[in-house]
Amino acid sequence: MTREADFAVSVNKLNYHYGKQLALNSVSLDVPRGKLCGLIGPDGVGKSTLLSLISGARALQSRRLLVLNEDLGESRQRKRLYRRVAYMPQGLGKNLYPTLSVKENLSFFAQLFGINGQQREQQVCRLLKATRLWEFKDRPSAKLSGGMKQKLGLCCALIHEPELLILDEPTTGVDPLSRRQFWQLIDDIRQQHPDMSILVATAYMDEAKRFDWLATMNEGKVLASGSPTELLKKTATSSLEQAFMTLLGNESAQIFEPSRQPSKNDSVAIEAQELTMRFGDFTAVDNANFRIQKGEIFGFLGSNGCGKTTTMKMLTGLLTPSSGKAWLFNEPINSRAMETRKRVGYMTQSFSLYGELTVYQNLKLHARLFDIPEEYVENRIKEVADQFDLQRLFKQLPKQLPVGERQRLSLAVAMIHQPEILILDEPTSGVDPAARDNFWHILLKLSREHGVTIFISTHFMNEAERCDRISLMHAGKVLVTDTPQSIIKSCNRSTLEDAFVDYLETASEQPSDTEKPAPELQKQASLKLSHGFSVRRLLSISHRETLELLRDPVRLVMALVGSVILMFVLGYGINMDVDEIDFAVLDRDQSSTSRDYILSLSGSRYFNEQPPLNSYAEVDARLQTGEISLAIEIPANFARNIQRGDNVTVGAWVDGAMPMRAETAQGYIQGMHMDWLQKQQQQLSAPVPQRATINIESRYRYNPDIKSLPAMVPAVIPLLLMLFPSILTSLSVVREKELGSITNFYVTPTRKSEFFIGKQLPYVVLAMVNFLILVGQALFIFKVDLTGSFLTFTLATFFYVLCATALGLIMSAFLNSQIAALFGTALATILPASQFSGMITPVTSLEGLAKVIGEVYPTTYYMIVSRGVFSKALSFNELHVMLVGLSIAAIIFIAVGISLVKKQER
Amino acid sequence: MRSLKNISHLGVKELVSLSRDPMLLLFIMLAFTVFVYTAASATPQTLYKTPIAVIDNDRSQLSNQLINGFLMPYFLPPEAVSASEADQLMDEGRYTFILDIPEGLQRDLLNGEQPKVQLIVDATRMSQAFTGNGYIQSIINREVSTFTQADTQLPIDIAVRAQFNPELNSGWFSAIMELINQITMLSIILTGAALIKEREHGTVEHLMVMPVTPFQIMVSKVWAMALVVLVASAFSLTVIIKQALAIPTSGSLTLFLFGTALHLFATTSIGIFLGTYARSMPQFGLLFLLIIMPMQILSGGMTPFDSMPTAVQAVMYFAPTSHFTEFGQSILFRGAGINIVWPQLLALAGIGALFFLVSWRHFRERLADMA
């Protein structure tokens, strides 16, 4: 054993860049084993980056990084770590699947680690019971409160009994009661597993006290590390909060906070009477009453999901209350009142600014939308940027910023128009202590000096203590509204947090944590984790994808019904026949012969005669308007010249704007002309000998009556089976990237091939169902006969939909935005499948790039199979070449797709 | 005034967002250059390099002359096949036509009889089968009269000329159709997806507490996305279609772009409408397919509009693409002016206004659910 064996993580001069920006600057750190270790520091100093590197979710850019003695730079060693490390990324329920239930989420993680059968049931059951999530096991994770989401996230991280657990701000945005329960859970786990190393990033200083070992970071560097007592000694301070400030080089000054002087003539800024909001059976807010004076700071506290956000949405007019009333500035709330909107600033709980606009552009956009006069815009932006320390971030995109900095931007935006009321929904979640302190200075100043009314929700008790009055809310009801001091007094407690927990426990009649059964996480008979490719893991990914598909029945139905509708529309609508050709005649002869000639045209079912023409000018004009597509000119002396045997030329002009139609029309006219000549000849009974001709007998194979439907249906099926499956899969990976659950793929032993094929499988099944429906529609509704081998057709379809689904996934794997994936897939399918694959023009008759595409595009070959099986009575013997081709195409598509999937974030 | 400012600020925001997605920009560029070019050069003529085979049982001077009558580029050089393998070759889809020349054709013809040749046509080959049949008939007639050196018994000729596209180059048509398809497709995807994105990222909520109306939000998306597509189409038309493909379009470019703008007004409104209906991007993707396919295929751009069933025609009168296709053909090929295309412009404006109003009302109602 080397010395390094004592460390869970050993970092040596690690650098990391985002573009030109240095996020980690030569970080060296040794994290001890078997301890609870903390990582603290202001926002944007690289904590999350460091954790994601340690977890293996993000690819290294330099140097070696040892985790549990394995080098993350070596892919083989990294693979071994998937099973030994667990990672819970920042953000409430970030790596959960919102439509899946609690139990399904956890089972899925278990399957990824090869835990199956009885063992999985036991493990899932035990973890859920220990965390008291068992009674909610069937609830979709999207509907859990923040605290519950984090507990579930923890369960998912613990399922494979990792040696190192990495938690990135696990309690940010979680209410105090849930926070206590969460840490209790961690303590219990540590008792059960004393060997487990836990590395946590946090913004709560009171949590930092719990840690055995701490590292503080600033500006991409580690400032100090060691046990809390060592840190206190080093900085010669008495509290960690102060130690932290000292390390950062900030003098923590004792702040003078002017208390509010209530005066009698204060007007009411916000008032609510019996405000109630119901969603179906669920009452989110139940008879809430409060009056908030102008200039007051009013705090709103409560557990996650108790109705705080809903109340705020009603006040801003985003939601219309089911009953009750609310007033802003003594006027009933009207969601359409633009003037009121200008006087209110609102910050939502989740980040809701534009990720593609830079920080500066976001500020500017909002300043302008709030109608700040153009000459003041720059000044105002500078002001708020100074207040929230945003100047240096001006050119960055919010989506690249850490949570804390994004929150600061949101706050700046909410205040940019100097509103009279600020409604702030957990504005400081994820913000570091120093920035929070600074933020409260601003709030106090606004309230005391400018009379701004502030309605704020928070989970930080030291923030609640700074409010003039607070309301405690639970399960939609306001439990108490008073000053923080009175509330503490009335509970006979010493801190607001204790008082708060008292209230909540009384309200929910939940006994405190003491009698909670300790989670039985006893070591399993060592888990057998399969190495290499695992069909089970692949199937578990398919299973999850299927569940998500089933939870969105609208999409499922749209996919199946949509293709049926399109088959009707295209089957009946596409008609290659050319008829109804409007024509007009410029008859300069006006003889019976010329009229007879015209009659031969107008009598045909292909032509419609329009009012006659009078001049060349009219010929041009009427062709130009598109009123007629054919003009015939019969020259003067037509009849007389024929009699004399002089040469006569009839003129015909066809509208060439649509060449296919024009060509066919030309053919018709020439045929008609010939016919008329023959008749004419017989009538003239001229003594001309019988002219030698060859009769041509056309036999239309496969569709003797030349009906459109039997020709179209076999061509439409390949088109639809390319478009629908590819559009369905095109978003499946890129969506996980946009919404965050892709991390689970990065940090679990899932292989690229398992991930890709696993995702593909449910859509292949769906496409096969779609195929059966379409064939059924063709046979029973369109009455088109299927003359060849159905089995061969099915087999070809299987390979074909493998190609189609893989094509969508390829787009999804290498693109980063849903819009691009959607448009890219539409481009890569619609044109090649409808025009370059022989649907109308055979590939052999194409030219240039179109021919190249047509020759390699799978639709070309599937189209041959489809037509062969429907119209030509072909079977496996004739079509096996196509099958081989399609299967090779499928293999290539899947291989390309797998190679494009990235196993780590870069 | 205030409203106009908001609309312009929000619109600029859309443009900046778009510029941050380099792959999307690349796709847009490809769509209006490579795709238009490829589609236009795919089929130079309706009948182009048609694969044909001949079963020559006569092996006479006449049959030889008939075979040599099939010329490039209309037909690939005819291949000689035997009667026994004809069926299989047809099944494999090797040829669109097989001409079966019976023994004694030349003899019978010279004897003044009327011999028969059989033309086997692969009817699954749609356009080639129909157009080619007429061609082959006239080729055979021509060759027969040359062979017999018989003058037409009556000195009546017909001179058929094609207006606006004298050589009936179908690339001209395909280029414009592909341009129209890309315009429609891109404008619907961009606006609809931009709306869904605001919803999925929670920014709709933010917009709703600011002093901006649903009308302003919607108009800003419409103008911004329409502008992007309009610029791309102008580029495609002037550089790709006029220069690279050397297609001599007639008519006023300004008028065409004006009509395009009206068309975009309608399609972007459709995009917004779909965006308010779909609850997520995957749902939007499917709705988009359902709308775009009929709009493209049944607009008269792929098959003649007049030949479609009347019920389909009636429905398609409400699709902006039907009018835009007609409008594009009139201006770019027939050189029509505003005196001729005003009905289409009016229809586009009317459909645009209708879709815009419906979408706007729907958007206003649905906005509350979206937050």
UniProtKB/TrEMBL annotation, chain A:
SMART domains: AAA. GO terms for cellular component: membrane. PROSITE patterns: ABC_TM2, ABC_TRANSPORTER_1, ABC_TRANSPORTER_2. Gene3D superfamilies: abc type-2 transporter like domain, P-loop containing nucleotide triphosphate hydrolases. The keyword Lyase does not apply. Keywords: ATP-binding, Membrane, Nucleotide-binding, Transmembrane, Transmembrane helix. CDD domains: ABC_DR_subfamily_A (cd03230). GO terms for molecular function: ABC-type transporter activity; ATP binding; ATP hydrolysis activity. It is found in: Membrane. Residues 9-244, 270-500 form the ABC transporter domain. It is a multi-pass membrane protein. The keyword Cell membrane does not apply. The chain crosses the membrane at residues 711-734, 761-782, 788-812, 819-840, 879-901. Residues 678-904 form the ABC transmembrane type-2 domain. It comes from the Bacteria. NCBIfam families: ABC2_perm_RbbA. This is Multidrug ABC transporter ATP-binding protein. It comes from Idiomarina piscisalsi.
From TrEMBL, chain B:
The chain crosses the membrane at residues 21-40, 217-241, 253-277, 284-302, 340-360. GO terms for cellular component: plasma membrane. PROSITE patterns: ABC_TM2. Keywords: Cell membrane, Membrane, Transmembrane, Transmembrane helix, Transport. It is a multi-pass membrane protein. Residues 133-366 form the ABC transmembrane type-2 domain. This is ABC transmembrane type-2 domain-containing protein. It comes from Idiomarina piscisalsi.
